[in-house]
C-alpha cells in the first residue's frame, strides 16, 4: 500500500479539458477530465491517476497519507507530529461558488456532477452576507456514512455519502483538486433526520497551515469563522422553503480527536461496503485499484464507462440563481 501511495503522489496529471479548455495541474497525483456540457445535467468530471488510468474519487483515492513525505520530500508546513493527521480531500465546490457539485455515488467511477432538485440543476442560495459556499467544500475519499447504522452520538443514521469537508484555508481551490488536509475538528449537522458530519480542515500547503492543529486554533486565528459556519449550515435550505437545520451537541464543534474517531468509523463502513459485507443500496462501488474488492474493474473497462459520456464544445453561462441574494432574520 505504501508503494501505491507513493506512486499516486508522484507527479500530477493535467486537467484534460473538453473543447480546448486549458489543462490545469491537479494535486496529489491526480488529473481530471470534463465530459458533457458545463452548466447542464450531462456534465461530468472524471478523475485520472498519475498513470493516466481513470479512477473513482470515492473508492480509489486513499483516505489517509501514511508518510511524512511526498515524492521523497517532507510535506510543506507539516510538523513532525502532524504527519498522522494528513488526509486526502476531493474538492467538489470551490469557495464563493453556488453550483451544488458532488461525487456521483450511484454512477460508475463516481464522477463529480451537479445535484438536481425537482429535475433542475441545484444551486445553493446566497444568504447575506455570504456569496455561495464560505469554504472550499468537498469530501474525504474512502469514507461512507452508512444509512443503516445509527450514530451513537446523534441517534440518527448516516446520510449515505462520503464525509463532507469544509476547508478553511486562504486559497480558493478548483473543482476536482485532490489536496492534503489537516483535520481540525467536526460538527454534527442533522439534515432532515440524518447525520451529516462536517469536517473542519485546512490545506497542509496553505501559508497559515502551520498555525492550525486543533479546533481551538480556528477560534484563535480565524475569529468568527466557526460561528459563520454554524449559521450558514443552519440557514442554507431556508430559501427553498425548508426549516432550519439542527445540530448534534447543541451546535458545539468537537475537537480533532473526536473527528478522527468519526473518520475511522466511516472508513470501516466504507471497507465493509466495498467488500460486499453490508447492504450498499444504490451506491456504485466500481473501482480500479482495490484489487480484492468484488467490484474491481480493469482500466480498459473504466475507460469504456467514461467514453460513454460525450465531450462538448460549449459551456453555458452562469445561472441567474447564482446572482440572487436572500436576506433572512438571523
TrEMBL record:
EC number(s) reported in the record: 3.6.1.1
GO biological process, one term: phosphate-containing compound metabolic process
Gene3D superfamilies per record: Inorganic pyrophosphatase (3.90.80.10)
GO terms under cellular component: cytoplasm
Disordered: region residues: 12-35
One Pfam family of this chain: Pyrophosphatase
Any one Gene Ontology molecular-function term assigned to this protein's record: magnesium ion binding
SUPFAM superfamilies to which the protein is assigned, alphabetical: Inorganic pyrophosphatase (SSF50324)
Compositionally skewed regions (Low complexity) per UniProt: 18-29
Top-level EC class: hydrolase
Keyword Acetylation belongs to the record: yes
Subunit relationships: Homodimer.
Protein name: inorganic diphosphatase
Gene name in the database record: Ppa2
Amino acid at each position: 500500500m505504501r508503494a501505491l501511495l507513493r506512486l499516486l503522489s508522484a507527479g500530477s496529471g493535467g486537467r484534460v479539458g473538453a473543447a480546448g479548455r486549458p489543462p490545469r495541474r491537479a494535486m496529489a497525483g491526480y488529473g481530471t477530465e470534463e465530459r458533457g456540457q458545463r452548466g447542464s445535467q450531462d456534465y461530468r468530471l472524471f478523475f485520472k491517476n498519475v498513470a493516466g488510468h481513470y479512477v473513482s474519487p470515492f473508492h480509489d483515492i486513499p483516505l489517509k497519507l501514511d508518510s511524512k513525505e511526498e515524492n521523497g520530500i517532507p510535506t510543506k508546513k507539516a510538523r513532525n507530529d502532524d504527519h498522522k493527521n494528513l488526509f486526502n480531500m476531493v474538492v467538489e465546490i470551490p469557495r464563493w461558488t453556488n453550483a451544488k457539485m458532488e461525487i456521483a455515488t450511484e454512477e460508475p467511477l463516481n464522477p463529480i456532477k451537479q445535484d438536481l432538485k425537482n429535475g433542475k440543476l441545484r444551486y445553493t442560495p446566497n444568504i447575506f452576507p455570504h456569496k455561495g459556499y464560505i469554504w472550499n467544500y468537498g469530501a474525504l475519499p474512502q469514507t461512507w456514512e452508512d444509512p443503516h447504522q445509527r450514530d451513537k452520538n446523534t441517534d440518527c443514521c448516516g446520510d449515505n455519502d462520503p464525509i463532507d469537508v469544509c476547508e478553511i484555508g486562504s486559497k480558493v481551490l478548483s473543482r476536482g483538486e485532490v489536496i492534503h488536509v489537516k483535520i481540525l475538528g467536526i460538527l454534527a449537522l442533522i439534515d432532515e433526520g440524518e447525520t451529516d458530519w462536517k469536517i473542519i480542515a485546512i490545506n497542509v500547503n496553505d501559508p497559515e497551515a502551520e498555525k492550525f492543529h486543533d479546533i481551538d486554533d480556528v477560534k484563535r486565528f480565524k475569529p468568527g469563522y466557526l460561528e459563520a459556519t454554524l449559521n450558514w449550515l443552519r440557514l442554507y435550505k431556508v430559501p427553498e422553503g425548508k426549516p432550519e437545520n439542527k445540530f448534534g451537541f447543541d451546535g458545539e464543534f468537537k475537537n480533532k480527536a473526536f473527528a478522527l474517531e468519526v473518520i475511522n468509523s466511516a472508513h470501516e463502513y466504507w471497507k465493509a461496503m466495498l467488500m460486499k459485507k453490508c447492504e450498499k443500496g444504490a451506491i456504485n462501488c466500481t473501482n480500479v485499484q482495490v484489487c480484492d474488492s468484488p467490484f474491481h474493474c480493469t482500466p480498459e473497462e473504466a475507460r469504456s464507462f467514461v467514453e460513454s459520456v460525450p465531450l462538448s464544445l460549449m459551456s453555458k453561462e452562469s445561472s441567474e440563481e447564482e446572482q440572487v441574494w436572500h436576506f433572512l432574520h438571523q
